[in-house]
UniProtKB/TrEMBL annotation:
Family (UniProt): Belongs to the TRAFAC class myosin-kinesin ATPase superfamily. Kinesin family.
Composition skew (Polar residues), residue ranges: 20-35
Keyword check for Phosphoprotein: no
Organism annotation: Ambrosia artemisiifolia (Common ragweed)
Any one of the GO CC terms: spindle microtubule
Keyword annotations: ATP-binding, Cytoplasm, Cytoskeleton, Motor protein, Nucleotide-binding
Protein's name in the database: Kinesin motor domain-containing protein
Stretches for region Disordered: 1-50
Positions bound to ATP: G142, Q143, T144, G145, T146, G147, K148, T149
Residue span, Kinesin motor domain: 57-214
Domain of life (superkingdom): Eukaryota
Compositionally biased tracts (Low complexity): 36-50
């Protein structure tokens, strides 16, 4: 998962890792961050400190979902090739018993991380920046089955603790705006096979993709 704040103040299953849906909390200014924050752990602490100080940069978190029952049976004879080190904000991918790659992130969220924890770490700072008037985007990226829809769009009808980022963000926005001076508009679109569908109005199932000449 990646969060964008424009000028903010302020052999096992590798596909369980989720770092493509997105929710654009406000579309006003262009994104100007100069750095991305997925990097090898070999970076020096000075480099990391300088990256952390960049205002409005992309922040990246990785979340590992729990294995389901089918995966647990299928992986019974295999060692886990994904090792999380949340205290160091690192993820290690083992190629084999003697070789591995290590990556650092802004946040590392384990299988036991709650939806509330994910929202507070990844999205709440972006929502706060949006309320201050800045552009903000939260994006979930990963293979099919890694938990993007659960993380972003879970409604939590039966269990409120399962609510995803979109519902929690909207709750925070509505709780902090003025009904007299503020307005909120919502679009819910799906882009699939170069076709845009309006999920709030299914009649609009083939919206044209156009390019602005400017």
């Amino acid at each position: 998962m990646a969060s964008f704040r424009n000028g903010s103040r302020g052999p096992s299953k590798v596909d369980r890792v989720q770092p493509a849906g997105s929710t654009n909390l406000r579309a006003s200014a262009s994104f100007k961050s100069k750095t991305s924050n997925v990097r090898r752990s070999s970076s020096s602490s000075n480099v990391r400190d300088s990256v952390d100080s960049v205002s409005g940069r992309v922040r990246v978190a990785v979340r590992l979902r729990p294995q389901n029952a089918e995966e647990m049976v299928a992986d019974a004879d295999f060692a886990d090739c994904v090792e999380l080190q949340p205290e160091f904000k690192r993820l290690k991918l083992r190629k084999n018993n003697w070789d591995s790659d290590t990556y650092e992130f802004d946040e590392v969220l384990t299988e036991s991380a709650s939806q509330k924890r994910v929202y507070e770490v990844v999205a709440k700072p972006v929502v706060e920046s949006v309320l201050d008037g800045y552009n903000g985007t939260v994006m979930a990226y990963g293979q099919t089955g890694t938990g993007k829809t659960f993380t972003l769009g879970r409604l939590g009808d039966e269990d409120t603790s399962a609510r995803g980022i979109m519902v929690r963000a909207m709750e925070d926005i509505l709780a902090n705006i003025s009904r007299d001076s503020d307005s909120v508009t919502v679009s819910y679109l799906q882009l699939y096979m170069e076709t845009i569908q309006d999920l709030l109005n299914p009649v609009n199932d083939n919206i044209a993709i156009v390019e602005d000449p400017k």
